[in-house]
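Q: What structure does this chain adopt?
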Amino acid sequence: MRILTFTTLYPNASRPSQGLFVETRLRQLLSVSRVQAQVVAPVPWFPSTHPRYGRYAAFASVPKKERRHGIQVSHPRFVSLPKIGMTIAPLLLANAVQPVLERIAREGYKFDLIDAHYFYPDGVAAAILGKRLGVPVVITARGSDLTLLPQYILPRKMIQWAARNAAGLVTVCAALKQPLIALGVPANRIAVLRNGVDLSLFTPVDRDVARRRLGFRRPTLLSVGNLVPLKGHDLTIRALASLPGVDLVIAGDGPQQSALEALARTLGLIERVKFVGVLSQHDLRCYYGAADALVLASSREGWANVLLESMACGTPVIASNVWGTPEVVTAPEAGVLLQERTPQAIATAVTNLLADYPDRAATRRYAERFNWDDTSHGQVALFERVLGRTASRDVVNVVAQEQI
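A:
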């Protein structure tokens, strides 16, 4: 079986931490099956690599092709129009990528299906390409593509169209099935294939050594994620005001960094809040292992990989009770679900957790339940079912003229 993984959320040489959850799932699939894969991970076109252009310069420096972990990855460029281009993004993406897919097929990699990640614009573009090329498409929904984007009229209609025309639909948690069902998709068409955790990468470290290396001298909380409002880093900073003697480390970058630093300074907490930027997974393992708890105060999450990564390192979590998170945190040894998404609720949860701290070995054992095997085998079963069911309809799909 040959698959073509298609997504704008995939790591590359310039942004190695972007979309790691997609790459990890694909690598795990290839390790336990006879599936072959190539990846097409488009990036927005930008003319200059000059550092003054920030993340746009990073787009320009992405190589057109690279191999990551033995997987061939292509990075075609597409036109992205900030703010005004939202409604035409799927068509622009599909038009830019089609010649690349045709070239890949001509060069001998005749893929059996398109494995698309994130419903909009990626999944919609994949559905357009599937019709044009006569190839079945499987779309995986991952979070805000279903919890946020369907609020907009045209994206909602295009997501509905893509869902109708996809041969397979996947959500990464049971909670994400509900918005898809609300869009008119029959429940029996949706497979839930949760993310797992790399148990060989995220393992307990020598805690004393890690704490000395990182300079942790007091109980320390860790918050990992993009520095954007939905991640709730500001709530965790405010919680420190009620947690004397507790420090906070924030790993990630983003547009809110200056505001978060100013907040910590205004509250007189700047000496207890440390920003460490984006960390490699190897470095994250050390921080997870050294911390006393991971705090994730997000307003939205599909399936937050950082929760399982922390648990796999033996560190319990404190997390907001949203979307797929209650499916991850289900036992005391895993950590605590917040009753409210407020600074006081975070402070109370931290106090209670530190007073009745779970055995770190038990936290690790809990995470071991979330290996990748079930997900990978579920993917193979779904792909085989899709190919068996849709093979006779490919010609119909090619000539179908249904418009979005």
